[in-house]
UniProtKB/TrEMBL annotation:
Spans traversing the lipid bilayer: 188-208
Keywords: Membrane, Transmembrane, Transmembrane helix
Pfam families the record matches: BLUF (PF04940)
Protein name: Sensors of blue-light using FAD
Xref: InterPro entries: Acylphosphatase-like_dom_sf, BLUF_domain
């Protein structure tokens, strides 16, 4: 476990190995992963396979280039999973938001449901029944504290059908995230260059119109 997660390690050290725990972490897609629309299907399949074999329940949420995953299970099986999560090079900036023992599972019927938090990709039917998630959009879980994470988890349990998108939408989303990742730090420069380009076109038009 990374050194910056000493508080997580300290919290886990106080919990019995057979105790049932809930752990929530957040992370960001790497630039390489943003070029791969299939990343979501691969991550979901990996999670489902491991979790079904080890009695882990929870949810995996994605939006705005960020993941939030909640896992529930015995500490002794969650710990190896946590280490593999930190070692996974498909994402970065991994941070644990909360970890604590629980009396019972809240995601008992969720083997590992993938929830997309990209409202512009949702179907009209999905939008109607997912209004409770509006306050969490745009999806930026890396800025949340443990209380906000708990509130979000409670909200997604209230929706009957998880927000979903088509494969074409996922492809566009991956492309959009890649552009945002590249262009984001240079927005001011891009804006100035765009204005200059428009002015240049107008000047050329005026020059040749007289």
């Amino acid at each position: 476990m990374p050194l910056h997660e000493h508080s997580t390690a300290a919290a886990l050290s106080k919990i019995e190995d057979d105790a049932l725990i809930r752990l929530v972490y957040v992370s960001s897609l790497t630039l390489q992963s943003r070029f791969r629309p299939s990343i979501f299907q691969t991550v979901e399949q990996d999670a489902r396979c491991y979790n079904q074999q080890n009695g882990i329940t929870g949810t995996l949420c994605y939006g705005n280039g960020q993941f939030l995953q909640c896992v529930e299970g015995q500490k002794r099986v969650v710990l190896p999973l946590l280490q593999s999560i930190f070692d996974d090079n498909r994402h970065k900036e991994t941070k644990v938001l909360l970890v604590h023992p629980i009396e019972e599972r809240e995601f008992n019927n969720w083997a590992m449901r993938l929830v997309f938090l990209e409202r512009w990709l949702w179907s009209p039917e999905t939008k109607k029944q997912a209004n409770t998630l509006s306050k969490f959009l745009p999806f930026k879980p890396s800025q949340w504290d443990s209380e906000e994470a708990e509130e979000f988890l409670h909200a997604i349990q209230q929706i009957e059908t998880p927000p979903h998108v088509q494969e074409s939408g996922i492809s566009l989303n991956a492309l959009g995230n890649m552009i945002q990742h590249v262009a984001g730090p240079h927005q001011a420069f891009i804006l100035v260059q765009s204005v200059l380009a428009v002015l240049t076109i107008v000047a050329i038009y005026l020059l040749f119109s007289f």
